Amino acid sequence: MKQRNLSVGIIILAVIAVAAVLFGFWYVSTRNNLVRLDQQSEAAWSEVDNQLQRRYDLIPNLVETVRGYASHEEEVFRAVAEARAQIGSARGVGETAAAAGEMESALSRLLLVVEQYPELKADRSFIRLQDELAGTENRLAVARRRYNESVMTLNQAMLMFPASIVAGNMGLQQKSYFEIQEAARSAPQVQF
Q1: What pLDDT band is residue 183 in, cutting at 50, 70 and 90?
Q2: What residues make up the domain containing 60?
Q3: Which of 14, 19, 20, 85 lies in the 20 to 30 Å Cα band around 147?
Q4: What are phi and psi of 122, to 5 degrees?
Q5: Is the pLDDT of residue 188 over 50?
Q6: Is 72 in a helix, a strand, or coil?
Q7: Neighbours of 147 (CB within 10 A)
């Protein structure tokens, strides 16, 4: 009888040990997956940041080219300069998205000014700058989409049970999407 109780005790301990090992493997695997997803979202955000910086580096050249043709449009130039300054002081996804929205609004007003100057639209340096800006906008759109996809994947993984427990233990918080402002959703009005 003692030998049988001893055998049952060993089996119970073995089952507990196997369960603990399996739990440990699951926990480490889940934690590593969350870390990987978090790092992917950080890398995706860095690409958005790089493309925003490229855009903001092109804008002064574009503004100076337009200024040569339309020097009396000082309000538009000031709006572009203020929006560009906002991006430099932005912290985090929300503030950066708001500053990017302001910049998009200012750029659309600048491009409206361009519509009033046919000789500017024919200028080679302006055309080259406009092409560079269009390419940058396309790369920025791709980077935003990739960032939002990585944030969605991370947030989903963090919200699913039982991974949510591991995410809570790690102190991970849901990340914000890079969303455009409501004002940027409407097309600018061109008046001749």
Answers
A1: low
A2: 2-185
A3: 85
A4: -95, -10
A5: no
A6: coil
A7: 24
